[in-house]
Specification:
Elements (H helix, E strand, L loop, with lengths): L5 E2 L1 H7 L7 E4 L3 H6 L8 E2 L5 H4 L9 E4 L5 H12 L4 E4 L2 H7 L20 E5 L5 H12 L5 E5 L4 H8 L2 E2 L15 H8 L5 H14 L9 H14 L3 H22 L18
Parallel strand pairs: 1-5, 2-3, 2-4, 4-5, 6-7, 6-8
Helix pairs in contact: 6-8, 6-11, 9-10, 9-11, 10-11
InterPro entries: ChrB_C, Rhodanese-like_dom, Rhodanese-like_dom_sf
Organism: Bosea spartocytisi
Protein name: Chromate resistance protein
């Protein structure tokens, strides 16, 4: 029997990828994780036995979801501990197993760079972003690593900064996270992190068309390009542009997920004039 402190798979699925998505904690034991080494989007693995030590890390979160293998004792116990610490926490009904059975989106964490001093992965790319260099940070923060840090530097310094600061370079030539044939870096990240979904696949086609000057491939690509170029002119600082771009991609993702079939027209309330005799 489920408790009133649980969230269903369907409810959590609607929150994934949103800017107000809850923090997700995976407390599966090592054997269960080894049997299925994927995570729910943005989830972090934690040792349930040490919850008293790490609970305070989530004190600033509005909502926390705890996931174990079947949604039973481990997630129930950790969520209860977090609640007694004043943190709004629920467990996922049915756990990781129910999420997988429902076809929920998951992340392959094998390629995720190690966490830096801030607790999130550190990435570096060329300054003055337009399309891919905004789309990729959006994808990472919304679906892979909520705490990811992004450094924008001169193109000539990306490699050196990556080496000196332990950052992972992306969207530059000759690195793992970059264009591959006709596919842009956003495509590559979706593939390597195992994030294929109808909404993200649709968004990827738009990003690819806008980023590779093939605007005729997707009707929405011209709009994305125009908005992206406009943002690049509005902001002097790249991180300010990234903050604004996050909202732009939030909107395109919600359209891709929920509104791609919707149309809009001017609903005239005026009666049709009768023809004169």
């Amino acid at each position: 029997m489920s408790s009133n402190e649980q969230i269903t798979v369907a409810q959590l699925s609607r929150l994934v990828g949103r800017p107000d998505a809850p923090a997700i904690i995976d407390v599966r034991i090592d054997e269960d994780f080894a049997a299925d080494p994927v995570l729910l989007p943005t989830a972090t693995r934690r040792d349930y036995r040490a919850v008293a030590d790490w609970a305070s890390d989530y004190a600033d979160q509005q909502q926390v979801i705890v996931v174990c293998h079947r949604g039973l004792k481990l997630s129930e116990g950790v969520a209860a501990w977090l609640r007694q610490a004043g943190i709004a926490a629920e467990s996922l009904e049915g756990g990781h197993l129910a999420w997988r059975q429902a076809g929920g989106l998951t992340v392959l964490p094998a390629h995720l760079p190690p966490a830096g001093p801030s607790g999130g992965s550190v990435w570096v790319t060329r300054a003055r972003p337009k399309i891919d260099r905004i789309a990729c940070p959006w994808l990472i923060r919304r679906f892979v690593d909520r705490k990811a840090v992004f450094l924008f530097v001169a193109a000539t310094e990306v490699e050196a900064v990556a080496e000196r600061f332990g950052a992972t370079p992306f969207d530059v030539e000759g690195v793992f996270w970059s264009h591959r044939g006709p596919r842009c870096t956003f495509d590559v990240m979706i593939e390597e992190f195992g994030l294929a979904s109808p909404a993200l696949d649709r968004l990827a086609r738009i990003v690819r068309a806008a980023d590779t000057a093939t605007l005729d491939a997707e009707p929405q690509a011209a709009g994305l390009l125009a908005a992206s170029l406009g943002l690049s002119r509005m902001f002097k600082h790249d991180l300010e542009q990234l903050d604004a771009g996050m909202l732009l991609y939030d909107a395109f993702h919600r359209w891709s997920r929920d509104a791609s079939e919707e149309t809009h027209n001017w609903p005239s309330a005026r009666p049709v004039s009768e023809p004169r005799s």
